[in-house]
C-alpha cells in the first residue's frame, strides 16, 4: 500500500471495497457486448485492449456512461485498420496524440495507444511517445483513481497504484510523485481541482503542496486547454470546492486572477460583506435554481458578477463602503478575461451582458417602476431574461431573513408584472407599431438615416406607452416628422 505512513491516507474497509467492486461488475456487464466484441478483434489482430482511466473509475463509482476509453499496444494506424470495418463512424481528430475515436451503436469510444506525455519548458503542446506495456502507460496517468484498467476480454483488473483504495477513501493522489506528474502535464494541477469538484474528493496534502509550488508551470499550457478544464470545473456538482482550491494554490492567479482579487482587505472602520465568499455562495445558489441541467452562461455570470468591486471600492466619510458602477466595470473586465481565455464571442457577449444588468433590479424598490421601465428591463435583457431572473435571485446572500424575504417578494412582483405585460403585449418581440416600410410610405421618404431615426422614435413611444392604435401611431409619426423641419 503506497504512502502507508501518511496519516491522511485512510485504508477503506473490506465492505467498502466489495460494494465498489459489485457496482463495477454491474456497469461492466452493461457494456460488455460492445467492449468484448472490440477486444476480440484486437486479440485476433495480435494486440491487447483494456478499458482504462475514467471509464474504470466511473464504473467503480456506478456512474459509467456511454463514453468508453480504451488503451492498447497497437499503434494508431493498426487501430484504424481494426475499427474501420467494425464501427459505425470513425474520426481521427486526436490521432496525433495516439487516439482514434469511433462510434458503435450508442457508445462513443476512444482507443489510445500506450503512451507517455511530457512538456518541455517552452512547448505549449505535449510531446507524445508510445510505450510498450500497460504498466508503463498507467504510471504516466494523472491520478491513481484514473490509473486503473480492466484487461479485455478476460476482465482482469489492473491496479498497480492502489487506485481502488484511494477511490474508496475519496482521495486524489498521483501514481508517481506529484512533481513528476505535473511536470509531464501542468494542466493536471487544474484537473486536480476539477476532479475534487466533480467527484467531491479531497486532494492529498502532498498534491496540494506541489500544486502550490508549481502553479507557475501552468503558463505554458494553451488558453484553450485551460478554458476547457475551467468549464468542466464550473459545470461540476461542487464548483465551490474546486474554485477554492484554485485560489488557495495560486493557480487562479494565472487562470482567473479576478477571483482571488475579491478577497478584499477589510478593517474595523469600513465594513462590508466578504465579496469572495459572497461570490462563491451566489454561484451555489445559481446552481440550485437551474432547471435543465448545468448552465455555463449562468454559472460564469454568477462567478464574475462582482469582479468590478475591487476597482470601484471607495471609503465614504460616513464609514460606508461604496462600489459605484461596479457592474459596468465588471462587464468590461468580464469581456477582457473571457476573451483572453478564448471563449466564443457569443458566450462573452451573453455573460458580460448579465454582469452589466445584475444590479438593474435594485432600482425597482417595492414596485415603483412604471410599465415603461419594466418593458425596458425585458428589452435590455432580451433572450437572457430567464437567466437574469436566476442571477438576481442568487445575488441575495444576506442573513437578514426580513431583508431577504422583502427582496424575494419584490422580485416575485416584478416577474408577475413582466408575465402580465408579456401576455398583453408580446414583450419578447417588442417592435414599433409601424415597421420600416410603413414609415417610408407614410413619410414618402426612401431608405436612409432619417428612417432609422423615425423607427427609433416609434420604438421609444412603444416602450413608453405600450401598443398604440394604428391611427394614433400614424399621427405620432407625422407629429415627430413635422418637428424635424
From TrEMBL:
Annotated SUPFAM superfamilies: Nucleotidyltransferase, Poly A polymerase C-terminal region-like
Pfam families registered for this protein in UniProt: HD, PolyA_pol, PolyA_pol_RNAbd
Domain HD/PDEase: 271-389
GO molecular function terms noted in the UniProt entry: metal ion binding; nucleotide binding; nucleotidyltransferase activity; tRNA binding
GO biological process: tRNA processing
Cofactor(s) required for function per UniProt: Mg(2+)
Top-level taxon in the UniProt lineage: Bacteria
Alphabetical list of InterPro entries matching this protein: Bact_CCA-adding_enz_type3_sf (IPR050264), HD/PDEase_dom (IPR003607), HD_domain (IPR006674), HDIG_dom (IPR006675), NT_sf (IPR043519), PolA_pol_head_dom (IPR002646), PolyA_RNA-bd (IPR032828), tRNA_adenylyltransferase (IPR014065)
Keywords: Magnesium, Metal-binding, Nucleotide-binding, Nucleotidyltransferase, Transferase, tRNA processing
Protein's UniProt name: CCA tRNA nucleotidyltransferase
Amino acid at each position: 500500500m503506497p504512502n502507508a505512513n501518511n496519516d491522511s491516507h485512510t485504508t477503506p474497509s473490506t465492505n467498502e471495497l466489495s460494494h465498489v467492486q459489485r457496482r463495477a461488475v454491474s456497469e461492466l456487464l452493461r457494456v460488455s457486448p460492445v467492449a468484448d466484441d472490440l477486444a476480440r478483434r484486437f486479440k485476433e489482430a495480435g494486440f491487447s485492449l483494456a478499458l482504462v482511466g475514467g471509464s474504470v473509475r466511473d464504473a467503480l463509482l456506478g456512474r459509467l456512461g456511454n463514453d468508453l476509453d480504451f488503451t492498447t499496444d497497437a499503434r494508431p494506424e493498426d487501430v484504424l485498420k481494426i475499427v474501420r470495418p467494425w464501427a459505425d463512424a470513425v474520426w481521427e481528430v486526436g490521432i496525433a496524440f495516439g487516439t482514434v475515436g469511433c462510434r458503435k451503436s450508442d457508445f462513443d469510444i476512444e482507443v489510445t495507444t500506450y503512451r507517455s506525455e511530457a512538456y518541455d519548458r517552452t512547448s505549449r503542446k505535449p510531446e507524445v511517445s508510445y510505450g510498450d506495456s500497460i504498466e508503463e502507460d498507467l504510471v504516466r496517468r494523472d491520478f491513481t483513481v484514473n490509473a486503473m484498467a480492466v484487461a479485455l476480454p478476460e476482465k482482469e483488473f489492473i491496479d498497480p497504484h492502489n487506485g481502488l483504495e484511494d477511490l474508496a477513501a475519496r482521495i486524489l493522489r498521483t501514481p508517481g510523485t506529484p512533481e513528476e506528474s505535473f511536470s509531464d502535464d501542468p494542466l493536471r494541477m487544474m484537473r486536480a481541482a476539477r476532479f475534487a469538484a466533480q467527484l467531491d474528493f479531497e486532494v492529498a496534502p502532498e498534491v496540494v503542496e506541489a500544486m502550490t509550488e508549481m502553479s507557475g508551470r501552468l503558463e505554458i499550457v494553451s488558453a484553450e486547454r485551460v478554458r476547457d478544464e475551467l468549464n468542466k470545473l464550473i459545470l461540476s456538482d461542487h464548483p465551490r470546492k474546486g474554485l477554492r482550491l484554485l485560489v488557495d494554490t495560486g493557480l487562479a492567479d494565472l487562470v482567473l486572477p479576478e477571483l482571488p482579487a475579491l478577497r478584499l482587505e477589510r478593517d474595523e472602520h469600513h465594513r462590508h460583506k466578504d465579496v469572495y465568499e459572497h461570490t462563491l455562495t451566489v454561484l451555489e445558489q445559481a446552481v440550485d435554481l437551474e432547471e435543465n441541467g448545468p448552465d455555463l452562461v449562468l454559472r460564469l455570470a454568477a462567478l464574475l458578477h462582482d469582479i468590478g468591486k475591487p476597482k470601484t471600492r471607495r471609503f465614504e466619510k460616513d464609514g460606508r463602503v461604496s462600489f459605484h458602477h461596479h457592474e459596468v466595470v465588471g462587464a468590461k473586465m468580464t469581456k477582457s478575461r473571457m476573451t483572453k481565455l478564448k471563449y466564443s464571442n457569443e458566450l462573452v457577449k451573453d455573460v458580460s451582458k448579465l454582469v452589466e444588468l445584475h444590479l438593474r433590479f435594485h432600482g425597482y424598490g417595492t414596485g415603483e417602476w412604471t410599465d415603461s421601465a419594466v418593458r425596458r428591463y425585458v428589452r435590455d435583457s432580451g433572450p437572457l431574461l430567464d437567466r437574469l431572473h436566476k442571477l438576481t435571485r442568487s445575488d441575495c446572500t444576506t442573513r437578514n431573513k426580513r431583508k431577504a424575504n422583502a427582496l424575494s417578494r419584490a422580485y416575485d412582483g416584478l416577474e408577475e408584472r413582466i408575465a402580465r405585460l408579456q401576455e398583453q403585449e408580446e414583450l419578447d418581440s417588442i417592435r414599433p407599431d409601424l415597421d420600416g416600410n410603413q414609415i417610408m410610405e407614410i413619410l414618402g421618404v426612401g431608405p436612409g438615416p432619417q428612417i432609422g431615426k423615425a423607427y427609433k422614435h416609434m420604438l421609444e413611444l412603444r416602450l413608453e406607452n405600450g401598443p398604440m392604435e394604428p391611427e394614433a401611431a400614424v399621427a405620432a409619426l407625422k407629429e415627430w416628422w413635422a418637428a424635424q423641419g
